[in-house]
């Protein structure tokens, strides 16, 4: 089974901080859902009946949105994925999301909020694999 990526490594987190990003940061999220959400590690928040990974991710987003907005963040885009126009045909992503934060510090405060973290089990149960790429706007100079 190929490796999946659901959480940052310590090295990736350190590299993110060391970029010394100033100003806004946009997080590109690429999401691949499990056919059936796996709540085996989070029985305390598991729904009564099995649900899809996509539905579990929506539960995660319902939990997360108030914390994201409270931290000054916002969702710029959420949409369904599909086959690449340019890219490997075997690589598929079910959904893509762009989340903006005013600063890395605001993002880190949001991501470490214990109340927010209490709902992370829905995300873990939902996802088979993911990617998170921090983006910094670069003006196009003519």
Describe this structure in words.
With 142 residues, this protein is α+β, with helices and mostly antiparallel strands. The chain has a single domain (20-135), classed as Alpha-Beta Plaits (2-Layer Sandwich). The protein is built from 5 helices and 4 strands, in the order αβαββαααβ. The protein has helices at residues 10-18, 53-70, 104-111, 114-117, 120-126, and strands at residues 25-33, 74-80, 95-101, 127-135. Strands 2-3-1-4 form a 4-stranded antiparallel beta sheet. Helix 2 (53-70) runs antiparallel to helix 5 (120-126). The longest helix has 18 residues, at 53-70. The termini are far apart. The model has no long low-confidence stretch (mean pLDDT 95).
Observed structural traits:
Alpha-Beta Plaits; single chain; four-stranded antiparallel sheet; 32% helix; 5 helices; alpha+beta; 142 residues
